[in-house]
Amino acid sequence: MSTDVKVPVLGESITEATLGQWLKSPGDAVAADEPIASLETDKVAIEVNAPVAGTLAEQLVKEGDTVEVGAIIARVTEGAGAAAATTRETVDAATNPPGPAETPLPRDDTHAPTEEHADLTLSPAVRRAVLEHHVDPSKIHGTGKDGRITKDDVLAAAKAKESGAPVHEPEVASPPAKAGAQAPEAKAPAAAESKPSAPGPRPAPGDRKEERVRMSRLRQTIAQRLKDAQNTAALLTTFNDVDMSAVIDARARYKDLFEKKHGIRLGFMGFFVKAVALAARDIPAVNASIEGDEIVYRDYLDVSVAVSAPKGLVVPVIRDAHAMSFAEIEKAIAAFGKKAKDGTLTIDEMTGGTFTISNGGVFGSLLSTPIINPPQSAVLGMHRIEERPVVRDGQVVVRPMMYLALSYDHRLIDGREAVTFLVRVKEAIEDPTRLLIDL
User: What is the pTM of this model?
Assistant: First the structure.
């Protein structure tokens, strides 16, 4: 008996997705609720699970095809593979090591793992990382329980692979060979030797490779939304810098007590979210949006926090951030960061933000002009903390400074409002007591 595998409900207003990757091949044993395919929507990747235990009988769509909610994408033959699936999940790699793949993966990649090995030992998150980084899991030493491969193992292998890749230098004339050293050029063929006037062979430039990868649906959507923002909004960016001394001192003084009490580290983002909430009360336009010929003002703050994910930037939303404590904010950010890394963020968790904070400083950015996330009207860009000389009370001193950038829609927010908002954020960060006494 065969059971249809259908595209699940993807979220409000989302009616279709792209089949990004098949995680199982026809003939593979599957367990009930085991991921067999990955769908890409405009906002997030979603795994499709097998409805029953059995064997994947057939795939009805190809990778890259667009599928609608409720569409049948595969069929599973019940029962036949249930026992096999259970056995394969529990077999230890040491007693049943993976052999060469009998059936290649749908994608044409000589460095991709075999399906047999992936089914035996890899979780969905690890399998996805293996495929994204083009590493062979049979050559990775697992550090997880019972020798299983973890996502960190895959990332470490990918980094080692990249560091060991040959450097492709420009094609230049070879330097003169040292005495006693063998010439780097290969000897010309006999036919060439018979023609002294012909130029000799040029040094091999090394392998030059190109790879064409289809843009994910998420990346296409990011590109379209950012371009739409540039085409629609009257974008402008204003800058300021902020002395991070007070926040750094507060974190150093209370980090151990904070972590002991709340089970989470005290980070910088909590201070900035609280500072934005305070400043937005004075300048409500930065938390508003334009809808048609109307301006929508809000008495709440839902902060979209830009987070880097394997397939692109995602912006999970901290809802009612204006009413949250430092601990609640930090816990929400940590949870979203983990979900983004594992690819398990839901569409609802990334919908409905009213203001965005983007921290390029974690990647080393000194300064940037962030682009707003429509229909929002403003985004705050944080950057790296760098010790710089500044003047305090007529004396040049060294302080840990950070540049802040506020990009905003000038159709809604005037320059005076934008500058005032950024000054309010600066004041709150340089004197965190303001956050406690509501100044």
Answer: 0.60
Least confident of 133-137, 307-311, 343-347: 307-311
Q: H-helix or E-strand containing 379?
A: strand 378-382
Query: In the predicted model, what is the mean pLDDT of residues 196-203?
Result: 57
The catalytic residue among 146, 152, 256, 414 is: 414
The mean-pLDDT minimum among 168-182, 301-315, 360-374 falls in 168-182
List the chain domain ranges.
Answer: 1-90, 233-437
CATH class, range 1-90: mainly beta
Strand order in the sheet with 45-49: 45-49, 35-40, 16-22, 66-68
User: Do residues 62 and 37 lie in contact, with contact meaning Cβ atoms separated by under 8 Å?
Assistant: no
CA pair distance 344, 334, nearest whole angstrom? 14
Catalytic residue among 241, 410, 431, 438: 410
Do the domains 233-437 and 1-90 match in fold?
A: no
Confidence of residue 137 (pLDDT cuts 50, 70, 90): confident
Tell the burial category of 209 from Cβ atoms under 10 Å away from its Cβ (0-12, 13-18, 19+).
exposed
SS3 19: strand
Displacement of CA 227 from its chain's centroid (Å): 20
Answer whether residue 320 shows pLDDT above 90. Answer: yes
Q: Active-site residue 414, yes or no?
A: yes
- In this structure, the number of other CB atoms found within 10 A of the CB of residue 227 comes to 11
**pLDDT tens-digit profile of 72-128?**
999 999 875 444 444 444 433 433 444 443 333 343 343 333 343 434 446 656 777
Annotation says 207 is catalytic: no
Superfamily covering domain 233-437: Chloramphenicol acetyltransferase-like domain (3.30.559.10)
Cβ-Cβ contacts under 8 Å for 168 (sequence gap 6 or more): 205, 206, 207, 208
What's the half-sphere exposure (Cβ side, CA atoms, 13 Å) at 50? Answer: 30
